[in-house]
Write a structure and sequence with these properties.
about 20% strand; Creatine Amidinohydrolase; about 425 residues; 6-stranded mixed beta sheet; 4-stranded antiparallel beta sheet; Creatine Amidinohydrolase, Chain A, domain 1; about 35% helix; alpha+beta
Length: about 425
């Protein structure tokens, strides 16, 4: 069960997925079931199937980053707290006003700038990562400038002038501090390197994402089979969390009922599930740092003809997007293919009913580069992973979203979980 404290910790570590939406953001917590329903109790842990990322893999990532630095004319990249830091080093470091940074130079040994009183904690984590006990850690006292140490470490590696790429989530105060301490350097975006590495997954990463998708799909199915009339949306979300726990991973879902399903990221209003209610749940989990993000829309009882028609259109849009996605195709083309189905069926124009992009990159973050959206001409590559999530949202009535995780293959694309058949057969 997620508490406010664990929510903060997950967010700080980059481990919280896109499903931590309205309820958790407002401090509401999924209600734990008093006892486990039979479908959930029957689940068994699959944690032993998750193989951690190795230090050899992280060293390979750093080597790839250095190659990309050369291609994009960057002399170094600076990482602070967040997902990219963990991706390259295995270090998990929370936010704060004190600079903790890892500098990856294009050539030469990486180095770390760390508050002096945090050195022990930093070396503990660094010792488990690819740098081991040989990590070059430069420490600063509370009355000293960490930015001068960054400049000093770069100068030691022959970087007196040139360009330093800043990872996109680094605070402005940190980037500006480096710029002031080393005015001969040019500060630029590090995204071509960090996203350039992270947005194409290797075999191990894909295996972890397949497992994460399987866990969430299985948890959803068990929770769906345990659904009872009269539950609140938080009680049902509690079943989803309990099912993830039985499978060996922390995960959950945001649940919206009836007219609130027409709000893509839901509402904080209390909701009760009744016969004929349409439900939209959106969630996922993290397996060794890799996320799933799946939505299912279904009805307790019998859907209306309009609900069935909207589901059929949305599911067709998801199928069309899947067929359109293949290496070499522009990201925006996949969005356009799905959107045309929905608009041609009378739910348009533009973003009127399908009010968001088709999908987002998926990996260690629930939302990451690249994005399936109009205007993004980046060509797809094998190994990219996305959500495929067209939606139709009719304000004041209901919404439908079919969302599964999608892998770009060498000759097309595939979904990592079985699709929903209908509002009455979501699994």
């Amino acid at each position: 069960m997620l508490t406010r404290r664990s929510l903060f910790r997950l967010s700080a570590l980059g481990g919280i997925a896109a499903w931590a939406k309205p309820a958790l953001a407002q401090g509401r917590q999924p209600a734990p079931p008093a006892h486990l329903p039979a479908p959930i109790a029957a689940l068994a842990s699959v944690r032993d199937q998750a193989k951690p990322i190795t230090n050899d893999e992280r060293l390979g990532r750093i080597s790839h980053a250095q190659t990309l630095m050369g291609m994009h004319k960057l002399d170094a990249v600076m990482l602070c707290q967040g997902t990219s830091l963990t991706y390259f080093t295995g270090v998990r470091w929370g936010g704060g006003e004190r600079l903790f940074a890892v500098l990856l130079p294009q050539r030469g040994q990486p180095f770390v700038v760390c508050p002096a009183f945090e050195e022990g904690r930093a070396r503990e984590q660094l010792g488990l990562g690819p740098f081991g006990s040989n990590a070059d850690v430069m420490t600063w006292q509370e009355d000293e400038s960490p930015y001068a140490l960054v400049a000093q470490g770069l100068k030691k590696r022959g970087i007196n002038t040139g360009t330093v790429g800043i990872e996109e989530t680094v605070k402005f105060v940190f980037a500006n501090g480096v710029a002031q301490a080393a005015p001969a350097l040019t500060i630029s975006s590090g995204t071509p390197v960090t996203a350039g590495c992270r947005m194409v997954k290797d075999t191990h990463e894909i295996a972890l994402m397949r497992l994460a998708a399987h866990v969430t799909w299985s948890a959803y199915k068990a929770a769906y089979e345990s659904l009872q009339e009269g539950m609140t949306q938080d009680e049902f979300a509690g079943l989803v969390s309990a099912a993830h726990n039985r499978l060996g991973f922390r995960g959950g879902a945001d649940v919206q009922v009836g007219e609130y399903s027409a709000l893509p990221h839901g509402s904080i209003q209390p909701q009760v599930i009744k016969q004929g209610s349409i439900l939209l749940m959106d969630g996922g989990c993290s397996v060794e740092g890799y996320s799933s993000d799946i939505s299912r829309t279904f009805v307790l009882g019998k859907p209306t003809d309009k609900m069935n028609r909207v589901f059929a259109i949305d599911r067709k849009a998801q199928d069309v997007a899947l067929r359109a996605a293949r290496p070499g195709v522009a990201c925006e083309s996949v969005d356009a293919a799905a959107r045309k189905v929905i608009v041609d069926a009378g739910f348009g124009p533009g973003y009127q009913y399908f009010s968001h992009r088709l999908g987002h990159g998926l990996g260690m973050d629930g939302h990451e580069w690249p994005y399936l959206v109009r205007g993004n001409t980046l060509p797809l590559r094998a190994g990219m992973t996305f959500s495929n999530e067209p939606g139709i949202y009719i304000r004041g009535e209901f919404g439908v979203r079919c969302e599964d995780d999608m892998l770009i293959t060498v000759d097309g694309a595939e979904l990592l979980t079985p699709q929903a058949e209908s509002l009455e057969k979501p699994f």
